[in-house]
Amino acid sequence: MSNTALIVGASGIVGSATAALLHQEGWQVAGLARHPVRQDGVAPVAGDLQDPASLARAVADIAPSHVFLATWQRRPTEAEMIRINRAMIENLLEALRPKGSVRHVALVTGLKHYLGPFEAYGKGRLPQTPFREDQGRLDIENFYYAQEDAVFAAAARDGFTWSVHRPHTIIGKAVGNAMNMGTTLACYATLCRELGRPFVFPGSAVQWNGLTDMTDARLLARQLLWASTEPKAANEAFNVVNGDVFRWSWMWGRIADWFGIEAVPFDGTHRPLEPRMAQDGPAWAEIAARHGLAEPNLEKLASPWHTDADLGRPIEVVTDMSKSRRLGFTAYQATDDAFFDLFGRLRADRLIP
């Protein structure tokens, strides 16, 4: 049977990596967004996930076999996050229902499944690490759970299979993404080099000294493809990380070396990025003009608030991959190489000098 993908969030870190992989594998790929951007191998579909009538018109001429949900919207409170993110999924799957073409829906969430939502992130009673899929949900409202429930209900109603994918912090390239540590650190390192500032680790002592892991968007895309086509993976939730672990005390020096700057020894003081980069817009615009960069708006590249949330956590976070490994998913990516590959792509695309 032919495979046709509808990717929601096709221009984001996860969606763009998934679109590239599926196109490479010979799939027909459509990308849904309110304002689709041009992407190689992706047919643009303009529709608003919050507007059922808009969605019905948008998908009237497509019949996807597989749906990849790699988007969400941030709101001031978790209650609002739950309402809007659940409704977006419900609206889309209802709009696709008349065709009866959907065979599998893959939902990308993340480790906030175990760590809690933004309002209670890394606080209270948390499951032991490494996080494992059978640890279940926290006893707290979480928009990830609402997204899952929307998919589960539609699958039970319409007869398609599903998979849920829980990456750790994602490394990948996308301009305008709300959660983008790799590009944020690249901008921070560039500012330090260009302005003569010290390259100081912005996180907590626990993150500096403890073990952690991350997820390359390309590896996540490979798991999405695998779970969507492997019968043994149907109706399962999977963690997904690169397969290595590291300490930021090691990685920070590796990143500094790539940018040709010196990593300042960590003195145990937590120095978040958001307040320190808050006034750097004009400096970045000047750097962009001097080097002929493609994006002079720092806010479209960096998300210091999200990097602070990850690097400031008071607990060590590592993720177990045994479940998908046992079922046959064995992809691996060294995390330092993932950073270096990203930095190289950012430079090639003139997003950093």
Automatic annotation (TrEMBL):
Which interval of the chain is the signal sequence?
none
Q: Where is the PRISE-like Rossmann-fold domain?
A: 77-353
Q: Which organism is it from?
A: Methylobacterium fujisawaense
Q: What is this protein called?
A: Nucleoside-diphosphate-sugar epimerase
